[in-house]
Amino acid sequence: MKKTLILFAVAIVLMSTAAVAQTTTLSVGVAAQASISVTTGTTSMTNSTAFGNYSGTTNFTYSVRTTNTTGSGAITMSMPDFSQAGGPSVTGLTYGCGMGATGTACSGTTNAVSISSSLPVATFAAGAHATGQSGSVTWALTDNPSWSVGTYTTTVTYTISAS
Predict the structure, then answer these.
(1) How many CA atoms lie within 13 A of 18 on its CB side?
(2) Global pTM?
(3) Is the distance from CB of 80 to CB of 89 less than 8 angstroms?
(4) Domain boundaries, the chain
(5) pLDDT in tens, 65-120
């Protein structure tokens, strides 16, 4: 009986498989990132009285993550002049900015527009974190009776960056 038990134990040991544990390190590198989505497809500037000033608002959403210690970020915009002759120039526009809880909006509401320049909309400090926050640019244009009747358009390009 003792011999059978020993043979049985040896058989079990010989039939068992050895288990070996291995490890790995999982690493995630989280980088500074930013994205913007303009949610107003076309900003129509309107006036409510004869020869009154024109106004309109462009809305956008943004997400941003800047480096904790030395990071920064910005939203800027640029545009060429209106494509049609005889009417207003974008240099007659003024703008103001509104931002969500993360970010510092451009100062004032009468910032001058210049053609094809990088115009400030907002800045982000080190350690900024935001997902899906809302912002806006409000536009104003003083009417001029000498403009020709027509629709004047330009394309405004918004750029967001983070480091």
Answers:
(1) 2
(2) 0.84
(3) no
(4) 31-40+55-143+154-163
(5) 999 999 999 999 999 999 889 999 999 999 999 999 999 999 988 999 999 889 99
